[in-house]
Design goal:
By secondary structure, the chain is mainly beta. It has a single domain, classed as Double-stranded beta-helix (4-Layer Sandwich), CATH 3.60.160. It is 10% helix and 49% strand. It is built from 3 helices and 17 strands. The strands form 3 sheets. Strands 3, 5, 6, 8, 9, 10, 11, 12, 14 and 17 form a 10-stranded antiparallel beta sheet that branches. A hairpin with a 6-residue loop joins strand 1 and strand 2. The protein is globular.
């Protein structure tokens, strides 16, 4: 398998070239184009319970698509649902990914959900991460560009809850206020995740919630009828 990420950093398109017998799995609706020698199979991957957990708890689609190259060389492209970037993670362990940021992966990876615990109640985000583990190739997507951060053992960084995309196993975190009560309420920053290394973090440069808040006042308001 060969891949190329085109049109970075905010209108990215993932192009994958597969040989006969190779396959890719993706979220429903992620495929943009494919050659005729690629076959699609749609299943509730991992069984009914696992698919239901990913949908209800992780914010992903119930069904997943598997694209299999039947003969020769096939080409398939994937794109995020929004104006964002795509990042490749060569997997040999475990990553935690925010719901909505999983794009596609090779067959050797498994996807489950992981409860954040009580601290998730205060993070402003989903209480569950997608837990992706195994060996293979993972592709994640973001809103805006993707900014990588490598934390050394004991090194810390604070990340806005709406800007976290994914982080490597070994990273620990806690939820806290950005500052005092006044700053938390009035600064527009709210709560942050205090993340501690070692490990790698991917951050998106734009927050969907902040964008939605900026966009809402500009939308036409429904007209009342007398």
């Amino acid at each position: 398998m060969k891949y190329e990420i085109l049109y970075r950093p905010v209108y990215s398109l993932l192009k994958v070239e597969m040989d006969a017998g190779e396959s890719m799995s993706s979220e429903a609706g992620a495929m943009v184009s494919m050659t005729p020698n690629i076959e699609i199979q749609t299943t509730a991957k991992g069984g009914l319970l696992s698919s239901l957990k990913r949908t209800v708890l992780g914010g992903e689609s119930f069904f997943q698509n598997t694209f299999i190259c039947q003969q020769g060389k096939g080409v398939i492209t994937f794109g995020p649902a929004y104006t964002g970037d795509v990042e490749h993670i060569p997997m040999s362990g475990e990553w935690l990914v925010q719901g909505g940021s999983y794009l596609c992966s090779t067959p050797g990876l498994s996807i489950d959900t992981k409860f954040q615990g009580a601290k998730g109640l205060f993070s402003g985000e989903s209480l569950f991460f997608l837990r992706i583990f195994g060996q293979g190739d993972l592709f994640i997507s973001s809103f805006g560009a993707i900014h990588p951060v490598d934390l050394q053992p004991g090194e810390e960084i604070k990340v806005d809850t709406g800007n976290l995309v994914a982080f490597q196993q070994g990273i620990t975190y806690s939820v806290e206020r950005v500052g005092g009560i006044k700053s938390t309420v009035l600064s527009g920053e709210g709560l942050v995740l205090r993340m501690r290394g070692p490990g790698k973090i991917y951050i998106q440069t734009r927050s969907p919630a902040s964008f939605a808040g900026w966009l809402y006042p500009l939308l036409p308001k429904p007209q009342s009828h007398q």
